[in-house]
Amino acid sequence: MDSGCSRHMTGHRKWFSSLNPVSTKEYITFGDNGQGKVMGVGSVSLSAKLSLSEVAFVQNLGFNLVSVSQLLNEGFEVRFKKGACCVLDAEETLVMTSYPGELLHMDTIGPARVASVSGKWYVLVIVYDFSRFSWVFFMEFKDEAFGFVRDLVLRLRNEIHKAMRAIRSDNGGEFRNSRFENFCRDLGLEHQFSSPYTPPQNGVVERNNRTLVEMARTMLYEHRTPRRFWAEAVNTACYIANRIFLRAFLGKTSYELRFGRQPSVKHLRAFGCRCFVLKKAGHLDKFESRCLDGIFLGYASSSRAFRVWILEAKQVVETSEVSFDETMPCTTPAFELSSDDEEGTPIFEDEEGAVNDGDAGATAPAAAPPPLATSSMMKEDPCPRLPPHSPDKASPCEAGPAEDAGR
Fold first, then answer.
1. What CA–CA distance (Å, rounded) separates 137 from 124?
2. Which helix or strand (DSSP H or E) is residue 296 part of?
3. Which segments of the protein form a coiled coil according to its record (predicted)?
4. Model confidence pLDDT, tens digit, residues 185-209
């Protein structure tokens, strides 16, 4: 949002729903007296509620600039508060926000090609509009999404002490149903939907999805970690992204914008590396090994601990008594790699170009996921050897104020 900008402009061609070339040479002059050539003018759909017209496509412009004066000329209202800004249409419907908690974006990814170690096939991704702080939740059935959204919205309403105004999603059946409708009505929330087959209208979470999947795929391949640990990789990617990516124009990470302090990154380790967990048994033989060989799988959700796959026991433990060898890849026979673990193999079916907008069916994965018929939220975890706060159950992407102490 730029109050000194005379018109909307961007340097990214992909944002335009329509673009017309300009008939005359036109240049934009910037504050440092530099110039950018206007390559065309067109329309950009930021959401189902907000479409910008007369947007200039400027060569080599590295930022997306929304002009306050042009918004006012187009009939929108722009409200500024201390540290916040929101855009409303003529009916005072919220269409853009820069205030914490007013708008949540959400989407699902999946099905995965293989089930996670706890039998999950789908990922629910939720993103704060203002800070871009994100959460991930893992599901066996798509209709579990409502429970996760409900719990998060209620918690955030208590946390920020301000009224949440809207949630935004695609038209998938997991979002467009009577449970969501009743929930939003009871809380006074507006449920905004993107147009069918138009992912850019839900672009905030769609772009976040791509980042998380690309990070997870890279982490899995780096240390040859089997694909059945994709949920751990996505969870770790979300944990890291919240702490290292800077929010455009604000110069702060999503974590800092949410909690008001800079995150510590000194405890971060290479996903999939070999690690060694200290044995806690009371009676050990004098010559018995004092550690367990394991693979690092991320960070605990409710304690200051690391998640480690113990190779001998074939189970996940959470502990702070662990040493890492980040140079050593996983090359042990305990991890048998399959064709799904080959380099370049997508984690999810829709990575290869399918439109994931809740309107098109995905092709079947290697092992068919469960149908969308009934919810499994009350079912017992099919992999009880995992801790109850496994990332397949909750997201460790956030933490309390003392998160980094003791690490």
1. 5
2. strand 291-299
3. none
4. 999 898 989 878 777 778 889 989 9
